[in-house]
Amino acid sequence: MLNFRRIPVWTQDFRRHLSSTGALFRGQNVIEKIVQDYSVDLPKGKLVHSGDYVTIKPAYVMTHDNSWPVAMKFMGLGAKKVHNNRQIVNALDHDVQNKSEKNLTKYRNIEYFAHEQGIDFYPAGRGIGHQIMIEEGYAFPGTLTVASDSHSNTYGGIGALGTPIVRTDAAAVWATGQTWWKVPPVAKVELKGKLPKGATGKDVIVALCGLFNHDEVLNHALEFTGDHMDQLPVDYRLTIANMTTEWGALSGVFPIDKTLLEFYKGRLARLGHNHPRITKERLDKLASSYVKADVDAYYDKTLTIDLSTVEPCVSGPNSVKIGNPVSKLSSHNIKVDKAYLVSCTNSRLSDIIAAAAIVEGHKVAPGVKFYVAAASSEIQKDAEKAGAWQTLLDAGAIPLPAGCGPCIGLGVGLLEPGEVGISATNRNFKGRMGSPDALAYLASPEVVAASAVMGKISSPVEVLGKPCPEANTVKTTIKKNEKDEDEDAVEEIDEPASGKVLEGFPENISGEIVLLDADNINTDGIYPGKYTYQDDVSRETMAKVCMQNYDLEFGNKTKAGDILVAGYNFGTGSSREQAATAILARDMPMVIAGSFNNTFSRNAINNALLTLQIPELIEKLRLTFANEEKIPTRRTGWRFNWDVPKSVVTVVDSKNTVVLKQKVSEVGRNLQAIIVQGGLEGWVKSYLNKA
């Protein structure tokens, strides 16, 4: 996705442009520095900044139960041997309760492939892949580690840049060692003050999701800072980083500090001196030199939360954007049918011990089922050794194998119609944990355990027979970078043309704008789900059903060559590549939107569909047609033109009056190469043929 915006003299994009040409240098934030270290084929002297498209060679890529689909895609590219088997980790964790022959066959296929290729493999029961990546030192402070799973953000809790990729990207990394990434805008999140007794990391992220719930951090990378950060346990950091996904961010990275270094000293003591990745030498090097933001680093915005005002919070029902103090919900006497202490979010040792402390001496309430699963087999062994595991079982908890399970609607313990569940997981989307007619809430392990004992959503203090304290107000602020606040449109652009295009990449893209006047257009709307798993759908059929669920008249109102302009968060929902290829099947060269869902953006580029983010354009269109009948698909009579070598976009209205003209960042040769080859798969095939 290309981020096009108005550019006055000192905005971010202009500074980045000057930096890349050597005319001006500015500092880098932590995200940019880590990406710099893991980017390949950069122009000499190039400093990586937000908005740049780069080719990255991540330290590691993790795939889980989707390893076999990735392997199938990998082999479909003509690849036979992975580029670097030390870069790849396979961990079976999602459907570990499924003992059907079909699932076991898939698991055997993954294990055989990993053994054949020399890939590090972790079988079902060893634990959740993200936890393994941390325990075994694959994700490590200051590194870039990716996974074909949305909760790779978890790695940010230990100072690594963890970010999700789609299956095509994973196959590309397997085959070539690299893929592409767009450096996102970076926001700073300041955690001021200290958490009061009883509040946890889960309460912090639930509060953030509920209070900043208008896409403030959508598709951003986050850097967490704070005046008492050293007092925030690493497990709390992992929980917060994990749920930056639900907050809408691409990653959330905590600083490397003495608390983190002590955490790793503990890991080293447990693992001994023969571990291949967590070693004394590596930790000594980390302690002496680690990545920090420059004093003049740029941040798109700064969000602040006063930790001293945070209290136990509950998210829901059925949305992470709804948050309330548990003290408020307790008075509503919301009956609980099922409680869950599972998942990669809150099933570490400290979580299990905290939950056990709540239930000790008590029993799970009649009619309530309380499910527990450790994030890894190592954690379960430690919990058993500490006695916490047995305490939970004595209270009536139902154990599940180390893995994902009910968090993603798999295995036993799913919510039935009409039931209410409270969970220490990361998502409570409608229907995710079972029936769409159930209600799901999220909370900390302590609140979940208390609710299991009390039979209703409850505060831990209620288990002790004490009343809930009065709810207070969590203090937050948000500030956009001042240099972005007074932007004016640029009508005259004096920058010399410096861009060059590869042979086969268009120098000019133009067409009539078709307005799709809606936000959050999802992938089901773009490409109906009933066709998604049909392998024999023709290009003609894909073109015919494109946008059918969004607007039945779309096919009659549009034609080849049209430029689609939509609202915000375009392409949300399921990760289906056909949402991009269906638009291409209609011979439409690109989509412009106020903003894009990140997964759609990756699928678009991976399939050679260009996307531009121009919020000013959608706002101008909406203002112009505000007094006309609101229809989902409108031919506007406006013309869009993108001069690629000059990096300039121009829009004229039906009277041929220029309504928008913007200088934009250049399209890098790495991105051009992917488009020219028809997408990432074509690029990989070309790479392999040259190798």
UniProtKB/TrEMBL annotation:
Cofactor(s) needed, names only, are: [4Fe-4S] cluster
InterPro entries according to UniProt: Acnase/IPM_dHydase_lsu_aba_1/3, Acoase/IPM_deHydtase_lsu_aba, Aconitase/3IPM_dehydase_swvl, Aconitase_4Fe-4S_BS, Aconitase_4Fe-4S_dom, AconitaseA/IPMdHydase_ssu_swvl, Homoaconitase_mito, Homoaconitase_swivel
| Domain of life (superkingdom) | Eukaryota
What is the official name of this protein in its record? Homoaconitase, mitochondrial
Report the locations given in the UniProt record.
Mitochondrion
What gene is this protein translated from? LYS4
Looking at the record, the residues that make up the Aconitase A/isopropylmalate dehydratase small subunit swivel domain are 491-616
Entry's PANTHER family?
HOMOACONITASE, MITOCHONDRIAL, HOMOACONITASE, MITOCHONDRIAL-RELATED
Native organism:
Eeniella nana
The EC number(s) attached to this protein equal 4.2.1.36
The record's section on Pfam families has: Aconitase, Aconitase_C
Might you report a single GO cellular component term? Answer: mitochondrion
Keywords in alphabetical order: Amino-acid biosynthesis, Iron, Iron-sulfur, Lyase, Lysine biosynthesis, Metal-binding, Mitochondrion, Transit peptide
Q: Which family does it belong to?
A: Belongs to the aconitase/IPM isomerase family.
Q: Name one GO molecular function term.
A: 4 iron, 4 sulfur cluster binding
Function per UniProt: Catalyzes the reversible hydration of cis-homoaconitate to (2R,3S)-homoisocitrate, a step in the alpha-aminoadipate pathway for lysine biosynthesis.
Keyword match Iron-sulfur? yes
UniProt pathway? Amino-acid biosynthesis; L-lysine biosynthesis via AAA pathway; L-alpha-aminoadipate from 2-oxoglutarate: step 3/5
